Amino acid sequence: MSNKEANILEIFYSIQGEGILVGLPFIFVRFSECNLKCNYCDTKFSWDKKEFCNIENKKIRNPVSIDNFIEIISNLPFEYLSFTGGEPLINSDYIEESIKKLNKKIFIETNGTLYEKISDFLLKNVNYWSIDIKLPSVIGKNIFSLHYKFFEKLINASGKIIAKVIFSKDTTLKEIEEVEILSNHFYEQNKNISLVFQPLTVNNIIKIEKNQLDMIYNTMKNLKFEVRLIPQIHKILKIP
Ligand code: SF4
């Protein structure tokens, strides 16, 4: 028995709508709470703790004990499990405990700021780290220094690193160059990185200008490692 518990907003399954695993069936575990308040956040409903956790068509009371959580997840299909939010690393101990008891491929979808939450255990046992590089033009503040610290911690990670950059119509060349410097610096020390550019989707509408695409293409030409441009597929398909 373990006494760990967490506030979970929802547990559901869908396809992975972003990044290099796009299209694969996943179980998603969405934790409540986030340490950032991004302007464009499309999961603002996850910022506060909720009384209930929704699991497909039933509800259970929060917080959810780790034993209850393991039982629920063990009975769900699919081999990929995404911890998302909110910011999942707020619950890093809970995630760690879950990984010890589950036989799933673990994917953590993080805002790339809570570097102090990355334990040696997570470094060894998380299969995929999907890390947002948040641009000032998109979130309204500059947090590159936190991203540097976060990526520094992941240099010895065993899993795949997927750096995801959401850009908007206001994104500047200087910001994209900063992404290039950060990701190239990381690649020199850990080759297991892919970079994904993702146009901002608001109300299921993607707005990209030709000059922005040129800016992204030019950056893609300069990178030595795998880089892609992919929109959010789940929003195009209008699924969760
Ligand atoms: S980090 Fe993610 S969940 Fe948190 S406010 Fe930003 S977009 Fe929303």
Notes on the structure:
The chain has 240 residues and is of the alpha/beta class. The model has no long low-confidence stretch (mean pLDDT 94). The radius of gyration is 18 Å and the shape is globular. The chain starts with a strand and ends with a helix. It has helices at 66-74, 92-101, 120-125, 136-139, 144-153, 173-189, 210-222, 233-236; strands at 5-6, 8-15, 25-31, 52-55, 58-61, 64-65, 80-84, 105-110, 128-133, 160-167, 193-199, 201-202, 205-206, 227-229. It is 30% helix and 28% strand. A ten-stranded mixed sheet has the order 5-4-2-3-7-8-9-10-11-14, covered by helices on one side. A two-stranded antiparallel sheet has the order 1-6. The protein has a single domain, classed as Alpha-Beta Barrel (TIM Barrel), CATH 3.20.20.70. The protein has eight helices and 14 strands. The structure holds iron/sulfur cluster (SF4). Residues 34, 36-38, 41, 43, 46, 85-87, 111 line the site of iron/sulfur cluster.
